[in-house]
Amino acid sequence: MGTIRVSKETPTRQPALSPPQSLSTSTSHTDTANGSHEFKISGYTLSKGIGIGKYIASDTFMVGGHLWAIYFYPDGKSSEDNGTYVSLFVALASEGTDVRALFELSLLDQSGKGRDKVHSHFGRALESGPYTLKYRGSMWGYKRFLKRTALETSDYLKDDCLLVKCTVGVVNSHTMGPKIYTIPLPPSDLGQHFGQLLASGEGTDVNLEVDGETFAAHKLVLAARSPVFRAQLFGPMKDHDTQCIKVEEIEVPVFKALLHFIYWDALPDMQEFAGLSPKWASALMAQHLLAAADRYGLERLRLLCEAKLCDDVAINTVATTLALAEQHHCFQLKSVCLKFVALPENLKAVMQTDGFDYLRESCPSVITELLEYVARISEHSVTSCGYGNETNLEGVDINGRRVKQRIY
Fold first, then answer.
1. DSSP tag of 126
2. What 3-state DSSP class applies to 5?
3. What radius of gyration do the chain's Cα atoms show?
4. What string of H, E and C letters represents the secondary structure of 265-304?
5. Going by C-beta distance under 8 Å and a sequence separation of 6 or more, which residues neighbour residue 268?
6. Would you tell me how many other CB atoms lie within 10 Å of the CB of residue 205?
7. How far is CA 245 from the centre of its chain?
8. How many CB atoms lie within 10 A of CB 351?
9. Alpha carbon distance 192, 198 (integer Å)
10. Which residues have C-beta within 8 Å of that of residue 359, sequence separation ≥ 6?
């Protein structure tokens, strides 16, 4: 029989597969934060002779997070020039280390011809890059900016004044990586959920009685939103009956709007809640609601009402709004109202409203402030606008009637 031979073959090796590699990227952005400062030097003639190396400095100005100042040397900075040149520099006036910046110093032509004398880093290639200021007090500029004889016979000097302009561009670098994901986020719907809870009446545990009408609410919601309700419901001096709280000195539409805000965290439709004509509803409701917000410690509601009243200032309501602003310490609203009333075309019409009589009786100190505003406007007015000038008041929309400031 023949011999069977078994051949052993070496298997061919497959090349190893490289594991997948992830690639990340980032980008470095380098730019400049630019700002300018204009420095007026009056009395140039008197500044001559102060001494070589002595300077006149501008006020400091902020650019790129650092303070800067302009230094003008009427007799020059260097003794070797013997006062032949004026020197001009910009200096780092705040703490800083290795602040890199571009600079431009200009002596402005005051003839209107635009022939300024300019030394600038901007708009040209710099071999060594931006200038580096090592520490506070470091300077960039020119010892020989301009010959004094040339300066004194030029259009740069007018009425013994010079105008110097300095532009600084502080170099900033920042690196940004790519956003891995972008998910659109919906606005908060917390107020909507609480509003729906109020509307459903589920879980209510307190009744609020206002002028014979009852409103069901939730103690915890009221206490969380208003420090006044928190004291009434849970404080050491809480009401004996916390199941039913009687609310005094507030009208039903106003309280409904207040309760709406407590749950929804938004202003309601003022016209719908007030039940008045569109022209006056918003302003009248906002007045009453501001007072209620101040009473119950709802600061955000108070500011919303203040902003709305600022937008809705009008002849028939401004006097009562001004009184309200004074009584509830709404300083921005008060300022807007005073400026509006003090205008010559508004003053006489406002004085004829019932609201002005109320303002005069309830806030006499405001009348004094109003007179000061009127005087200030009269002083700065280009044309004479006397209060008795009837033609200035024609066309002012006051609807020919007075309005009682009450919500029904």
1. -
2. coil
3. 37
4. CCCCCHHHHHCCCHHHHHHHHHHHHHHHHHHCCCHHHHHH
5. 256, 257, 260, 261
6. 12
7. 41
8. 16
9. 10
10. 319, 320, 322, 323, 366, 367
User: In this structure, what token pair is assigned to residue 69?
Assistant: 């100042």
Read off the pLDDT of residues 302-325 as tens digits, 9 standing for 90 and up: 999 999 999 889 998 899 999 999
Distance of CA 336 to the CA centre of its chain: 17
Least Cα distance to 36 among 13, 56, 62 occurs for 62
Question: Taking each helix axis from N to C terminus, what angle separates 344-351 and 331-342, rounded to the nearest 10 degrees?
Answer: 100
Q: Is-contact 119 167, C-beta < 8 A?
A: no
CA distances from 214 to 205, 218, 377 (A): 13, 13, 50
pTM, entire model: 0.51
Q: What is the pLDDT of residues 158-209, one digit of tens each?
A: 999 999 999 999 999 888 887 677 788 899 999 999 999 999 999 999 999 9
Q: Using CA atoms, how far apart are residues 105 and 120, in angstroms rounded to an integer?
A: 6
Q: Where are the alpha helices (DSSP H) in 25-184?
A: 44-47, 148-152
For 98, 105, 142, the CA distances from 124, given in Å and listed in that order, are 22, 15, 18
Residue 146: exposed, middle, or buried by beta-carbon count in 10 A (0-12, 13-18, 19+)?
middle
